[in-house]
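Lab notebook, design round three. We kept the backbone fixed and only want residue identities now. Task for the bench partner: fill in a sequence for the structure below.
Input structure tokens:
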């Protein structure tokens, strides 16, 4: 009988996977809970149509019309310049002040924007016109289509 034990007895090497699975599950749950999920939705907007009467208190067709195309370019049309001159977006406030110097504050100021005009371009024009001092600001709309 061999009672002599080997002094260097080897225990078999084992990799215990249970603690590693626990750590991975905790990390997975942590990342799932802390992740913000964004859900971008698209909203279909039908632009409003309006029925209205043109202003009756306009003297000699004195109306200042600001046209904004779909690229956000500004054009101003007045009684003297029906074609419209292009305005620089950076100096819009100065241009409106120059126009106001030739007209009164009571002159109607109509913003006519394309349906695909960026909202920021319209708001910028509205803000600059009110800062300069125009008091009668309106938006041009199209007549509603009548269904037969």
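Proposed sequence:
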């Amino acid at each position: 009988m061999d009672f002599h034990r080997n002094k260097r007895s080897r225990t078999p090497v084992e990799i215990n996977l249970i603690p590693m699975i626990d750590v991975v599950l905790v990390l997975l749950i942590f990342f799932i809970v802390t992740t913000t999920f964004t859900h971008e939705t698209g909203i279909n907007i039908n632009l409003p149509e309006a029925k209205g009467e043109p202003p009756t208190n306009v003297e000699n067709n004195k109306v200042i019309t600001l046209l904004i195309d779909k690229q956000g370019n500004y054009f101003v049309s007045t009684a003297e310049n029906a074609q419209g001159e292009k305005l620089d977006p950076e100096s819009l406030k100065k241009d409106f002040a120059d126009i106001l110097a030739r007209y009164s504050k009571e002159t109607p100021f109509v913003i006519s924007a394309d349906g695909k005009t960026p909202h920021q371009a319209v708001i910028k024009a509205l803000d600059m016109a009110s800062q300069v001092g125009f008091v009668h600001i309106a938006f041009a709309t199209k007549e509603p289509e009548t269904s037969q």
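Keep this in mind before ordering anything: The CA atoms of residues 45 and 53 lie 25 Å apart.
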